[in-house]
Each structure stands twice: as structure tokens, then as C-alpha cells.
Write a structure and sequence with these properties.
By secondary structure, the chain is mostly helical. Helix content is 57%, strand content 0%. It is built from 2 helices and no strands. Helix 1 crosses helix 2. The longest helix has 28 residues. The protein is globular, with a radius of gyration of 15 Å. 3% of the residues are buried.
């Protein structure tokens, strides 16, 4: 089962997958969490995987806010 994803989540922009994977590894490294090389997350704690997901969400919200703030400044 290693390497197979059972997730029902689908990306709105499939080309974003590589960027999200890179972000996942960056966040994990910042948190000091080792991501399994074989892709099997079964041995990771829920706390660790939740922390990675939470920080990814936080970072994506920050990026969106910066993007919105940048586009709104052109309307002033």
C-alpha cells in the first residue's frame, strides 16, 4: 500500500501539486519533522501530520492575503 494515495481531495489546479509537495517538505523541515521517504504516513503521529497541514494552510492564507492586498492597492 506504500506510495498509494487514498485521498479523495482533488486539486482545483492540478499543476499546483508540485508546489504543494515542495511546501510540505519545507514546512516539515522547519518543524523538524521527518517525512517518510516511502510515502507511507502510517507511522507518523497525528500531531505531526496535523502540524504540517496546519502550517501549510497558514502559509497559503498568508500568500492569498498578500496577493489580495497587492491587487487591491492598484484600485486606489
Amino acid at each position: 500500500m506504500a506510495g498509494q494515495s487514498r485521498s479523495s481531495n482533488s486539486l482545483v489546479v492540478p499543476q499546483a501539486n508540485q508546489a504543494l509537495q515542495q511546501l510540505k517538505y519545507e514546512v516539515a523541515q522547519e518543524l523538524g519533522i521527518q517525512i517518510p521517504q516511502d510515502g507511507y504516513y502510517g507511522y507518523m503521529t497525528s500531531r505531526d501530520t496535523g502540524s504540517i497541514g496546519g502550517y501549510i494552510t497558514k502559509r497559503l492564507v498568508q500568500i492569498a492575503e498578500q496577493s489580495i492586498a497587492g491587487s487591491n492597492s492598484s484600485f486606489r
